């Protein structure tokens, strides 16, 4: 679908200059842009690529001399990445899912399908499930009994929604996401090696037998509005109470939230984050890639943890964390600087030892 420069600028709340009636149907980097593309050159360092491409219109920084760059029109934006969100939203057609219920879908007679919902091929909808208005369900999605999915949801191919899961409006799940699988909850008849280590922090006694017995997951998962979940991410159901994800939270690919985890609103978790069971996370918490969080800890609101951080204990609100074990980011940076100085320090100590040794010999 094509949009005029005026339409895009209005949607972004930005300034349009030049031929605002000019229409574009795609977006591209400046050097690869064609005549029907909107070139994305929001920073002066990207402007040179416009001469290599054939774009007639571009997104530029405020005050840019668009005419000197050979353009017919431009959109001037003060916050480039925020503008990217609006542009890509307008130009993204989304998955093709035909309206109505596909003939190959299996929908239980007791399930409720909201007005305008689209159910793709080979979808299975269980007993008593409810799917909201205008929801789009792509192929091979399974929605178990009594699950609830809100309005305007988008479930990509292969998503699995477990029994009694409750999901709010405008939910997005990328391919392969699993919401509501059983958590890792097992116990042994005798004291396990794990219990021994927690008590002693030392040597494990030899155990003749250690058999694991499942603690079943009776809870489910409750997800707020405007939540997004990445491909192959897993959110486990709670043991007794529900696992919870707050409204506005965005979760990347291959993230795991274990049983009974509670996250606040507007959190952001990058790929390969793992949060162990019964951990509570506040609002607006950001985890970089491969952050790990131990079980039964509490993390306050507005915490930021850099990539690879391993959080083993409670973290107060507003703290930036880094490292393993996690510590204040500025402390970790100082420690890292110290580590880099170690080879030089060792050389200095060796030289001092040699000097002292020679001094002793001369006496």
Descriptive report:
- By secondary structure, this protein is an alpha/beta fold.
- Among the domains are: 3-91, MurE/MurF, N-terminal domain (Udp-n-acetylmuramoylalanyl-d-glutamate--2,6- Diaminopimelate Ligase, Chain: A, domain 1); 328-362.
- Helices cover 17% and strands 26% of the residues.
- The protein has a twelve-stranded mixed β-sheet, covered by helices on one side.
- Strand 39 and strand 40 form a beta hairpin.
- The protein is flat.
- The termini are far apart.
- The model has no long low-confidence stretch (mean pLDDT 95).
Query: In CATH terms, what is the architecture of the domain at 3-91?
Result: 3-Layer(aba) Sandwich
CATH topology of the domain at 3-91: Udp-n-acetylmuramoylalanyl-d-glutamate--2,6- Diaminopimelate Ligase, Chain: A, domain 1
Rg value: 28 Å
Structural class comes to: alpha/beta
* CATH class assignment of the domain at 3-91: Alpha Beta
Gross geometry: flat
Counted by DSSP, the helix tally is 4
| Biggest sheet strand line-up | 8-11-14-17-20-25-28-31-34-37-39-40
What is the number of strand segments? 40
What is the rounded distance between the termini?
91 Å
| Residue share in helix | 10-25%
Largest sheet: 12 strands, mixed
Mean pLDDT score: 95
Within CATH, the superfamily of the domain at 3-91 carries the name MurE/MurF, N-terminal domain
As a percent range, the share of strand residues is 25-35%
The unreliable regions are none
């Amino acid at each position: 679908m094509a949009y005029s420069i005026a339409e895009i600028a209005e949607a972004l709340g930005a300034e349009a200059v030049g031929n605002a009636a000019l229409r574009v149907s795609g977006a591209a980097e400046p050097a690869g842009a064609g005549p029907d593309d909107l070139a994305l050159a929001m920073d002066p360092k990207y402007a040179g690529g416009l001469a290599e491409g054939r774009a007639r219109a571009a997104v530029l920084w405020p005050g840019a001399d668009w005419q000197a760059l050979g353009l017919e029109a431009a959109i001037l934006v003060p916050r480039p990445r925020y503008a990217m969100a609006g542009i890509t939203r307008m130009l993204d057609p989304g998955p093709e899912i035909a309206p109505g219920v596909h003939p190959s879908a299996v929908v239980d007679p007791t399930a409720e399908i909201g007005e305008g919902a689209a159910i793709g091929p080979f979808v299975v909808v269980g007993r008593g499930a409810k799917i909201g208005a205008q929801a789009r369900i792509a192929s091979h999605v399974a929605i178990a009994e009594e699950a609830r999915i809100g309005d305007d949801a988008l479930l990509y191919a292969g998503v699995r929604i477990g029994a009694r899961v409750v999901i709010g409006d405008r939910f997005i799940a990328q391919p392969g996401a699993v919401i509501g699988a059983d958590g890792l909850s097992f116990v042994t008849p005798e004291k396990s090696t794990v219990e021994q280590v927690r008590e002693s922090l030392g040597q494990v006694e030899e155990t003749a037998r250690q058999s694991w017995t499942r603690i079943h997951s009776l809870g489910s998962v409750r997800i707020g509005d405007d939540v997004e979940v990445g491909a192959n991410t897993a959110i486990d159901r709670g043991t007794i109470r529900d696992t919870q994800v707050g409204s506005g939270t965005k979760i990347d690919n291959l993230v795991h939230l274990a049983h009974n985890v509670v996250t606040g609103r507007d959190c952001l978790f990058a790929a390969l984050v793992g949060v162990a069971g019964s951990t509570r996370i506040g609002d607006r918490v950001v985890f970089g890639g491969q952050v790990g969080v131990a079980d039964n800890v509490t993390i306050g609101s507005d915490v930021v943890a850099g990539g690879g951080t391993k959080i083993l204990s409670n973290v107060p609100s507003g703290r930036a964390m880094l490292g393993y074990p996690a510590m204040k980011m500025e402390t970790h940076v100082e420690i890292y600087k110290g580590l880099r100085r170690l080879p030089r320090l060792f050389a200095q100590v060796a030289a001092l030892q040699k000097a002292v040794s020679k001094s002793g010999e001369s006496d």
